[in-house]
Amino acid sequence: MNRYLPVARQHFLAALASTSVVVKSISAVVVLLYLLSWAVDTPYALGVTPGYLFPPNFWVWTLLTHGVVEQHIWGVAVNVGTVMACGRLLEPLWGALELLIFFAVVNVSAGLLAGLAYLLTYVATFDLTYLFAVRAYGAAGFLGGVLVALKQTMGDTTVLRVPQVRLKAAPALVLLFLSLLRLSGLLESSAPLAAYSFGALSGWVYLRFYQRHSRGRGDMSDHFAFASFFPEALQPAVGLLAGLVHAALVKLKVCRKMVKRYDVGAPSSITISLPGTDPQDAERRR
């Protein structure tokens, strides 16, 4: 083990050196807050606690800070590794500013939705544990968003050969893994599972409807539909339900309609393009 540690450290430093200021800054904040956690209860002060997030306490800064708070060294490794993976795989496609926007959108949305979910659970059960004993913090929310983004950009990449697992299945597999850990008692709190789920959902909504790029906004391609995250047997039912929800959100002007554009300039053929699909994206997916 001692022989491999210097090599691993060298590769890590080389990878970190090749990343942008955004990746370096986020990684540095994660490490610094971990060191600070030895003296201060950072999950309490900077993590999302549902009872303190909403009025009258209104600790809104925790929506920005909870994603960079870690209390264990393995959490630091997962957090920094997730950010560095974004720097290597997504930042060349998006740019540093878009990566920072995605990081902020996913973490703020995951923290807010997780806090709201626990607040509603308290309303249903009147159990104060859901308000003041829950701490949502760490990389789980952003990890969910990143896996969704990787499914969008390189979903056909094989990550395991035996059994064959492609990257597009990673969001669902990680959700299943966290659920099993929670059911078995190895995961002490449900907060990481909730944060991961809401992070993946918010990441999909942002990439599907709002992300700006050279072709306009969002990605309305079929391979990135909400139903594509589920097993094939469930996709028709999920697709129908998702369509009804989308139609309701369109009427409320939260989402926009899926629009197809037809180019009939060429006399011999009709070219169909969808807003949100880039030629570079199509080539990368192939």
Give the CATH level 1 class of the largest domain. Answer: Mainly Alpha
Number of strands: 6
Proportion of residues in β-strands: 5-15%
Output the CATH homologous superfamily of the largest domain: Rhomboid-like
Strand order of the largest sheet: 1-2
Tally of distinct domains:
3
DSSP helix count? 14
The shape, in one word, is globular
Over all CA atoms, what is the radius of gyration? Answer: 20 Å
Q: Major sheet, described briefly? A: 2 strands, antiparallel
Distance between the termini: 39 Å
* Alpha-beta classification: mainly alpha
Q: Can you give the mean pLDDT? A: 86
- The helical percent reads 55-70%
Protein name: Transmembrane protein 115
InterPro entries: Rhomboid-like_sf, TMEM115/Pdh1/Rbl19
Pfam families: DUF1751 (PF08551)
Subcellular location: Membrane
Question: What would you say about this model in short?
Answer:
With 286 residues, this protein is mainly alpha-helical. It contains 14 helices and six strands. It comes from Dissostichus mawsoni (Antarctic cod).
